[in-house]
Each structure stands twice: as C-alpha cells, then as structure tokens.
Specification:
Immunoglobulin-like; five-stranded antiparallel beta sheet; single chain; Co2+/Mg2+ efflux protein ApaG; ApaG_domain; ApaG_sf; four-stranded antiparallel beta sheet; mainly beta; 128 residues
Amino acid sequence: MVQQVTSGIKISVETNFEGTFYKNYKVHFAFGYKVIIENQGKDSVQLNTRHWRILDALNNEEIIEGEGVIGKKPVLKPGESHTYNSGCLLTSPFGAMQGHYNMINLSKTNKFKVYIPSFKLSAPFALN
C-alpha cells in the first residue's frame, strides 16, 4: 500500500491484479485498486474532480479526467474517510498510475490539489 498526505488529506492506495482477457484480438491485463481518502485536517472538504495519468510498460499513456470519483463528490468532515474501488486495463503486464484530486475547503472556500502517490501495477506471473 502506498500513502501520501497533502494539505491534511491522506491518500492510501492498494492494488491487485484481476486477470487477463482478449479484447479486439489483443490481450489486456486488468488491475483493480482501492483508494482511501482520509481528512486529517481541521476543516470539511469536498472532492470535485480527478486527474489520472496511466502508463504501461509499452510507453502507452492515458489521461483520465472527470467529475468526482465513481459518480460521487464526497464531503469529508475532519476525521472522516471515503473508500472506493476502481480499475484499469493495460496492454502490458506492468504499469503505473498517479494523479491528483481537485478539492475545496468548505470552511475557507479555497480550492486545492491533493496528490495521489504513484503506484505500480504488476501481474504476479510476470515477476521474477
């Protein structure tokens, strides 16, 4: 599990390999990840948007941007957390993801970025 704290918001990410399958006559590698967002600060915050950069071992890059996370824009009071699960597909058995959430401090109405630590995606059968 990787973790990082930005502006009092702790992001923890845990990954797992889901399996391989064929799509459009190409093999794809499916990975799942669980993200825990913890408000360790003194003010309530809301997650508004996300930005992901996904890389695979073949140097393919995909940028994902959108509203909220899995259809939600969670509000976190001090001491609260939000957990969600998601996933991605790669065309190689190795890759990495990183990104950030755009959030707003509801008490001070200022916007800020919370960085998601870079984490590795790897199929266990491909490791020595």
